[in-house]
Structure formats: structure tokens, C-alpha cells
Structure to design on (710 residues):
């Protein structure tokens, strides 16, 4: 994709998984000229070089986002598939851990 | 760290008449103390005001690296040198988090830096004061960071999501900054006579400017009310200033140092400290560009940026060579 | 105070925690490595708030902090072995030019010869040279027969590996970036190259420490250093400079003229208040 002239290094979005068992969470963004430097900068900035942390860096231009205007047909409407909600089911009294 | 001391009365962009009709979803979120996120519809005035505020906050962090960075090579012990390096490094990091947050509003960091360099955007005027002695490191940590914390904690709950999240991250890392300043002053004030005098001298010079960080009195702050309606500002300038004084005066006593205010006294009725009248003309002079270090701070910043252009261009060119779909950044227009 | 090289000092009293080797020689060795890191940290500190990009301010501060940490560990250890013992601050702030034992590479300003102002090409050239050397040094020192030195080195290896990556990354980008950056990066290398030879000069290391497996022989570092550097320079389209070695002498306290200014700035405040705590 042809790039217009940029004033600064490209923007990257950073995702951090703080430790095993968690998923990657968006932590912020940074500017870097390429992926290797983006990863290094992300390590310096968002993990302060702690070990055991997993980082993803993604060019901001590669991200496709949903629009807040989209409703209903795009998202699973909360009220529709009610059998996915725990309150749908009657559980007899005294049954625990359900 | 930052304050509300960016513009003098009469120079701040005046609050626009209420043109925010048709943003019912926006108001619903703000009024429920929720978070506006980057792709939400929002009034243009809200967006512009936030860009300016967040950018100026970021500029404050990076300009703030200079008065303290000055003393890294001169720190009087290796431990103090290390702590100061770490603090200044944090400030660079905080600037970066804030520029990120600003960019979610559709601006480019390079443009924000241009506006800093050409004076269209400001930074906290506290950084236009010179750091004359080592004790200034203590005074800045204790008073300036202390004031910044009072300002910043409420921002962790501001209505704009990326800004609030950046502030949470920043506040977590700030915890040691104020403590290190306090510790420096404590060592000095309990050290030799010369060290004690150095500490008191620094407090004498930084006390009033720190109070001015909270900005002009509420009566002189035309944009505060709008900012509060938008859920960006939670407390008024005067409220925050009073909060800061009430927290800080007992700390001064613990330090054995005296704030340079003969009118400072506990008011039993109010449950707060009364303090002397602030001479805001000094603040306005500094904001206008007549502080001791205004030209030097911006000059240093511009030089670092300009001297580094060849480096940034090289990195860009290297990346472009390896990614055929990408063209290198063209030379920046001066 | 300078001890003549190779002289055997009378063994000092032993204790339960007797470090491996003659304490005076061990102290001197640790002091050499510690002074290197101290002076490097001091120079790197000058870059904070002046780097080409904010991300680089963060990275250079990281590296400076690591070097300072190494300095503190090594100087602290050296001081503990002296008679009477001296603290890291006493050693850093109260020794004069002729008593500092760092190599000349690390003490010079970041300016190009005859220039003023810090040059990023000089900085990355020096950092590449220095970090590549330190990786080889510490990876071997981590097996030192002296437990303290081994522990210090083991921690440092991870740090300097990162520094070497950082320097390599930049040398590649500056060498193979724009035509201007290639010229400037080459100029940086030319400015620093004369100070490489001193890194591999073994004359400062006590023979006893070598024989006991305490110290690392600098001669053994040269080949792996060369091999790594040559590969980076080739990939960066840079030429290996041909510069005669500088006269050296840092390990004996013979420094460049720039050392005096560095110490004046670093030490002035502490010396103005002797005995004070900060």
C-alpha cells in the first residue's frame, strides 16, 4: 500500500501479556521505523525489561476496527440468545457450585 | 508531571458557545462517569480541548527532563545518580504514554512536537525555573511532583479512556518520585549546616512556583467549568491547591524546613491551612516567555530534535529498503 | 595509589570469607573494571534529554543505569578488599585523575575530533566496540574462581547482551540507511578505533589472578570480538578502519585531557562537602 510522506516513524500498537494465564492486553502505542525496533522500544517502555512478559507489536495501519455505530446484526444482541445466560435456568435450592 | 499553569487569563482559547447538541450518546456516557473511547462520536470542542491538554501534559514531561537531567552528571553519590537517572527516564516514558493517548484523537506526534517547538503549544511553566543547586532535586521531587500528583490522581478517572489509562500507568510509576525528593531534602536538612542551608534555600525558591502550578484562582479560570462538565477536570484549581498545601505543610515540619510564607497557619474552623496571597504576576510573566529558562528549555529541545534528524531518517531509509511496499519518509520541512 | 604491575604484594590477613586470590591484586582488578563502567555511565548520562528520539532517551538511560550498577558492584567489592576499606562513593568521588584505572575509550566526550557537541555516530561506534568487548569479558568472568566477581559478571552478561543488540541495531541502520548516515557512522568508527587496542592489553592483570582462574585474560577476547565486529560492519556496509592505536595508559592513570573535565564535573559537589551524606 503506497505510503504518503510521513513526518515521523510509523505508529505501532502494543499488546502486553503480563504473565502466563492471562491474555494480551492493549497497553498503548509507540513510534518505530521497523518491527525489530518497535519490539525493543515496547520492551523498554511497556515492560521496563521485566522478564516473562510477552509482547506483540502491530503496525497501527494493520488494525481494522469495528465502528461504534454498528449494532444488532454485527454484534450478538445480548437479549436474543437467552439460553446463554445463567439466569435462564432454574436450579433447585441447595445445589451448590452451579 | 504538569499543572494548570499553561496560559494566562485572556490568552486561553475562550470557551465556545454550547454547540454540543446532537451528542446524546456522548453525554450519556460522560454523565454516567463512563469512558469515551477513540472512535466514539464526540463534540469537536471536546476533542480539540483534549488534544491540547494531553499534548501539553506530554510536553511538560519531556521538558521536565531538562532541569533534573542537568544534575545527573553532578549527583553527589552513585546511589543518587542512579535514582535521578531512573526518574528522568520515567519522565521520558510518561511523555511517550501521553503522546500515544493524544494520537488516539487523530493527531500525529510529529505535529504536536512542531507545536511545542514553535510555541503554539505550551508546557508547565514550573520548568522555566532554573535548578541552581543539588537541593533543587529534592525540592522538585517533593513540591513539584507532589503538586503534579494532586493534579494527576483525579485524571485517572477522567472521561476520556486513553487519557485515564495513561494516567493510571503514570501514577503507579510516580510513587517513588516524590519520595525520593523528600528523602534528598531530609538528608540535607539533617546533614551539615551548609547542607541544611542549601535545602532551605531550595524550598524558599520552589514553594511559591509550586503553588502556582495549580493555575490561576477559580475566578480567573474561564475554561474550568466546561472542562468539569466534560468530565475531564474533577476539582477546581483552588480546591486542588488547598489540598496540596494541607498535605505538604506537615511534611515540611517533618523535614525541619520552613515554607517561605509568614501567613501560613492552621485554621481550626476550616480544618485547613490558611496561606498567603499568591502573586500571580510572576506566573503570567513566566508563561509569556520571560521566565529564567524559557528560551533555553525550548532551544535545547529543538536542538536535540534537529541534531537527530539524520538518525531518524537513516532508520526510516533502512526500513524502506527492506519493505518494498513502503517508501521512506521524505526530508522534514524545516 | 599505583602498584607496579606484576609486583607481588605481601598477602594480607586471611579471614573466613577470604576472596580468591591476593586481596590487593583482586581489588586492583575490580577497580579497573569498575572504573570502566563508572566512566562509561558518566558519559552516557550526558545523553539523557538530548537523544534523537524520545524512545532513545529511554534506551540510553537504561544502558547508563546498567553500567552504573556494574560500577557500584565492582567498586564496592574493590573497596571492601582494601586496607582500610573504602566505600563506592569514596572511590568514585575522592580519587584524582592519576588514580582512576579506566581505559581511555570510555572517558572521551562524544564529540568528533575537533568538533563540539555529542555525535550519535561516535556514540554508537563506541557502544558497539564497548558492549561487544563487555559481552566477551563478562561471559568468561562469570566462571571466575572468585564467587563475587562471578556473580557480578553473571548478572552483567544479560545486561551487556542487550547493550550489544542495541548498538548493533543502530550501527546497521546508520551504516545501511542514507548516504549521509553511512558517512557519519564511518566517521564515528574512525574516531573511536584508535582506542580499541587498549581493551586487549593484558599488562594490567596480575599473573596470580590469571593463574588462579580469577581474572580473564584480555588477549583471549580479541578474536571473538573481531569476528563479531567484522560481521556487523560487513552487514552495515561499513569499512573496518585502519587507525594506529592511541598510546593508551589508562590502566596506569595516564588519561586523555578530557578526563580532568569529566572528574571536575562528577566530583565537585561531593568534594565541596567532605564527609557529608547525601
Amino acid at each position: 500500500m503506497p505510503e504518503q510522506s510521513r513526518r515521523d516513524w510509523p505508529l505501532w500498537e502494543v499488546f502486553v501479556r503480563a504473565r502466563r494465564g492471562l491474555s494480551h492486553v492493549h497497553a498503548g502505542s509507540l513510534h518505530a521505523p521497523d518491527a525489530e525496533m518497535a519490539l525493543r522500544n515496547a520492551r523498554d517502555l511497556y515492560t521496563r525489561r521485566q522478564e516473562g512478559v510477552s509482547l506483540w507489536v502491530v503496525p497501527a495501519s494493520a488494525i481494522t476496527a469495528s465502528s461504534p455505530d454498528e449494532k444488532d446484526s454485527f454484534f450478538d444482541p445480548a437479549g436474543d440468545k437467552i439460553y446463554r445466560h445463567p439466569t435462564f435456568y432454574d436450579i433447585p435450592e441447595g445445589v451448590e457450585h452451579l | 508531571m504538569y499543572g494548570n499553569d499553561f496560559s494566562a487569563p485572556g490568552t486561553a482559547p475562550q470557551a465556545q458557545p454550547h454547540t454540543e447538541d446532537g451528542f446524546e450518546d456522548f453525554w450519556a456516557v460522560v454523565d454516567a462517569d463512563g469512558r469515551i473511547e477513540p472512535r466514539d462520536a464526540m463534540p469537536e470542542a471536546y476533542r480539540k480541548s483534549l488534544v491540547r491538554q494531553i499534548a501539553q501534559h506530554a510536553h511538560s514531561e519531556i521538558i521536565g527532563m531538562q532541569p533534573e537531567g542537568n544534575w545527573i552528571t553532578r549527583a553527589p553519590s552513585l546511589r543518587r545518580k542512579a535514582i535521578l537517572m531512573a526518574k528522568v527516564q520515567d519522565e521520558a516514558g510518561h511523555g511517550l504514554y501521553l503522546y500515544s493517548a493524544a494520537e488516539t484523537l487523530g493527531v500525529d506526534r510529529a505535529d504536536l512536537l512542531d507545536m511545542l517547538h514553535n510555541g503554539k503549544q505550551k508546557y508547565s511553566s514550573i520548568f522555566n525555573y532554573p535548578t541552581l543547586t543539588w537541593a533543587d532535586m529534592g525540592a522538585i521531587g517533593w513540591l513539584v511532583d507532589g503538586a503534579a500528583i494532586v493534579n494527576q490522581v483525579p485524571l485517572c478517572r477522567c472521561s476520556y479512556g486513553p487519557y485515564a489509562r495513561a494516567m493510571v500507568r503514570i501514577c503507579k510509576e510516580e510513587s517513588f518520585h516524590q519520595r525520593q525528593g523528600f528523602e534528598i531534602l531530609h538528608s540535607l536538612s539533617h546533614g551539615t549546616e551548609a547542607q541544611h542551608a542549601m535545602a532551605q534555600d531550595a524550598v524558599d525558591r520552589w514553594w511559591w512556583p509550586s503553588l502556582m502550578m495549580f493555575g490561576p484562582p477559580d475566578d480567573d479560570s474561564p475554561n474550568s467549568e466546561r472542562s468539569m462538565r466534560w468530565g475531564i477536570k474533577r476539582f477546581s484549581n483552588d480546591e486542588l491547591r488547598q489540598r496540596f498545601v494541607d498535605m505538604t505543610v506537615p511534611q515540611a515540619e517533618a523535614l525541619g524546613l520552613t515554607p517561605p510564607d509568614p501567613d501560613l497557619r492552621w485554621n481550626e474552623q476550616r480544618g485547613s491551612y490558611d496561606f498567603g496571597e499568591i502573586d500571580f504576576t510572576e506566573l503570567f510573566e513566566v508563561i509569556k516567555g520571560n521566565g529564567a529558562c524559557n528560551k533555553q528549555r525550548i532551544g535545547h529541545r529543538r536542538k536535540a530534535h534537529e541534531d537527530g534528524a539524520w538518525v531518524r531518517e537513516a532508520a526510516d531509509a533502512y526500513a524502506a529498503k527492506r519493505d518494498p511496499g513502503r517508501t521512506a519518509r521524505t526530508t522534514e520541512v524545516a | 595509589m599505583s602498584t607496579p604491575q606484576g609486583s607481588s604484594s605481601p598477602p594480607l590477613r586471611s579471614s573466613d570469607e577470604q576472596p580468591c586470590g591476593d586481596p590487593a591484586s583482586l581489588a586492583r582488578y575490580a577497580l579497573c573494571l569498575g572504573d570502566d563502567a563508572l566512566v562509561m555511565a558518566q558519559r552516557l548520562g550526558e545523553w539523557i534529554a538530548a537523544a534523537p528520539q524520545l524512545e532513545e532517551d529511554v534506551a540510553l538511560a537504561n544502558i547508563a543505569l546498567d553500567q552504573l550498577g556494574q560500577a557500584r558492584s565492582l567498586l564496592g567489592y574493590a573497596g571492601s578488599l582494601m586496607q582500610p576499606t573504602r566505600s563506592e562513593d569514596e572511590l568514585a568521588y575522592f580519587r584524582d585523575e592519576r588514580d582512576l584505572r579506566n581505559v581511555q575509550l570510555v572517558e572521551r566526550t562524544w564529540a568528533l575530533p575537533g568538533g563540539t557537541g555529542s555525535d550519535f555516530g561516535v556514540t554508537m561506534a563506541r557502544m558497539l566496540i564497548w558492549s561487544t568487548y563487555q559481552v566477551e569479558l563478562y561471559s568468561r568472568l562469570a566462571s571466575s574462581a572468585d564467587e563475587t566477581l562471578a556473580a557480578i559478571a553473571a548478572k552483567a552478561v544479560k545486561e551487556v547482551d542487550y547493550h550489544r543488540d542495541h548498538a548493533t541495531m543502530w550501527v546497521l541502520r546508520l551504516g545501511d540507511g542514507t548516504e549521509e548516515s553511512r558517512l557519519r557512522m564511518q566517521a564515528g568508527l574512525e574516531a573511536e578505533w584508535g582506542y580499541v587496542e587498549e581493551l586487549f592489553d593484558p599488562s594490567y592483570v596480575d599473573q596470580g589472578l590469571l593463574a588462579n582462574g580469577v581474572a580473564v585474560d584480555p588477549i583471549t577476547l580479541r578474536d571473538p570480538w573481531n569476528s563479531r565486529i567484522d560481521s556487523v560492519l560487513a552487514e552495515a556496509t561499513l569499512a573496518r578502519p585502519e587507525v594506529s592505536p592511541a598510546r593508551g595508559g589508562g590502566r596506569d592513570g595516564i588519561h586523555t585531557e578530557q578526563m580532568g573535565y569529566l572528574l571536575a564535573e562528577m566530583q565537585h559537589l561531593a568534594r565541596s562537602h567532605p564527609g557529608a551524606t547525601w
